[in-house]
Amino acid sequence: MTINAPRGTNDILPPDSFKWQYLEEKAKEICRKYNYKEIRTPIFESTDLFIRGIGESTDIVEKEMYTFKDKGGRSITLRPEGTAPVVRSFIENKLYGKALPFKFFYSGPMFRYERPQAGRYRQFHQFGVEVLGSDNPLVDVEIIKLGIDFLKEVGLSDFFVEINSVGCKECRPPYLEKLKNYFSEVNQELCGDCKRRIETNPLRVLDCKVESCQEIIKDAPKITDNLCDKCKDDFEKVKNGLNTLKIEYREVPTLVRGLDYYTNTAFEIKSDELGSQDAIFAGGRYNGLIEEIGDRDIPGVGFALGLERLEILLEGKELDIESGIDIYIVTIGESAEREGFKYLNQLRESGISADKDYFGRSVKSQMKDADRKNSNYTIILGNEELESGQATLRNMKSGEEFSVVLSELSEKVSDLLDN
Ligand SMILES: [Zn+2]
Ligand SMILES: [Zn+2]
Fold first, then answer.
1. pLDDT recorded at residue 187
2. Per the CB 3.0–4.6 Å rule, which of 122, 184, 328, 403 could disulfide with 370?
3. Residue 230 φ/ψ, nearest 5 degrees
4. Residue 277's pLDDT is what?
5. Do 141 and 253 belong to one domain?
6. Residue 150: inside a domain
7. Number of domains forming the structure of the chain
8. In this predicted model, what pLDDT tens digit does every residue of 227-279 receive, in sequence order?
9. Which residues bind L-histidine per the record (predicted)?
């Protein structure tokens, strides 16, 4: 019996893997510009980290984590997201004692036991940024701009920005009371999930997609009408910052993140192409999270971007990806193959990507292979060429041909590629 990849996972094969490299490179380039530095945390962590860092009552922790006991009896979880590990590392390495803020980016696989569907896998990939140690609202604007720059850089233009403020530990509790009272009065008209949420997490009622609930949510008290002065001021600064950078946005008062340690700015960057529920990237402030994980009152803000979803949006778009080779060496006969192998090595040593046939195929099949490998140039080596020390380079795109002295092959190919 054959063995397949586990459900909800997939192999990233060439040429698709070039696309992945391209996206990861672009993300790194943007982060370099913004002075965000890479952090690499383990793929698995202590389960407790995610229970505290994501929240016990969330879908992720309740249903979606890959949790198991290791041979030492420790409860281990494959990371379902990137923020909690970054915060854990920040505290463990005592980075709060150094020059703040710390600006990180990460990129890598995450794991959630979800029902697989288009763009949603059990092993999926996220690129994200986290800024720890500053509560300046301009940092919120900076990361939104960073994400947008990334989307534009890879060729997307069809997206929009939604923002909200979810308040702080001063102004949110009284707002939640108001919200509870409002929903309690219309309790009978809410869906079953929402009925439960009124008590456990009334903010999440605002998130409900059920149509009858939507009607009721429309008239619910808005958090932005109930912010304290500091939160109001911070939210204004975020909006001013977005205006300064000419980033258009919509204010969406129902855009919430349900847990107590999420504070102030919440944002989502969406595309109509993904359907109404799916953001390309989303994030916000979590000024209470570091205290939750590490007993320190340090502010943080970040976003995460799903690369699989981005891939869907990029489908059919021309990307600036080089997946071919510079030159393919076609050889005729055994001694030409030996010599060709030598030239192949020379070319590679001078930094040129080169390949040859390894099946002793006919010249015609080798040319076909060069085409398949998307080679810029080919050169044919037979006894005649070896004796004269000269051969013909052929540009596979234009059909142009160049005579070349074999002892100068690498230089000649370099010159042609430079032009
Ligand atoms: Zn507040
Ligand atoms: Zn509902």
1. 85
2. 328
3. -60, -45
4. 60
5. yes
6. yes
7. 2
8. 999 999 999 999 999 999 999 999 999 998 767 788 999 999 998 877 656 78
9. 81-83, 112, 126, 130, 257, 261-262
Are 28 and 59 within one domain?
A: yes
Among residues 314, 349, 367, the one where a domain terminates is 314
**Mean predicted lDDT score pLDDT of the chain:** 94
> How confident is residue 209, by pLDDT bands cut at 50, 70 and 90?
confident
Whole-number Å distance, alpha carbon 177 to ligand 2 midpoint, is 18
Closest to 38 measured CA to CA, from 130, 115, 172: 130
Q: b/e for 115-153, b at 16 or more Cβ within 10 A?
A: eeeebebbbbbbbbbbbbbbbebebbbbbbbbbbbbbee
In-domain check, residue 107:
yes
pLDDT at 83 over 90: yes
Domain that holds residue 35: 16-171+227-314
Q: Ligand 2 (ion): which residues have CB within 5 A?
A: 191, 194, 208, 210, 213
209 contacts: CB under 8 Å, gap ≥ 6: 277
What CATH number corresponds to the domain at position 368? 3.40.50.800
Domain end, chosen from 254, 283, 314, is at 314
Ligand at shortest distance from the CA of 171:
1
Distance 350 CA to ligand 2 centre (A): 64
Shared domain for 149 and 293, answered yes or no, is yes
Q: What is the C-alpha separation between 208 and 276, in angstroms, rounded?
A: 13
394 is in an annotated binding site: no
Consult the annotation and say whether 83 binds a ligand.
yes
Instruction: Please check whether residues 231 and 348 belong to one and the same domain.
Output: no
Please check if 122 is assigned to a binding site: no
E strands in 175-315:
250-251, 263-270, 279-285, 300-306
In the prediction, which pLDDT does 197 show?
Answer: 86
On whether both 271 and 400 belong to a single domain, the answer is no
Total number of residues shown for the chain: 419
Structure-block tokens of residue 379: 């050169």
Domain-embedded: residue 215: no
What are the respective helix, strand and coil percentages of the chain, to the nearest 5?
45, 20, 35
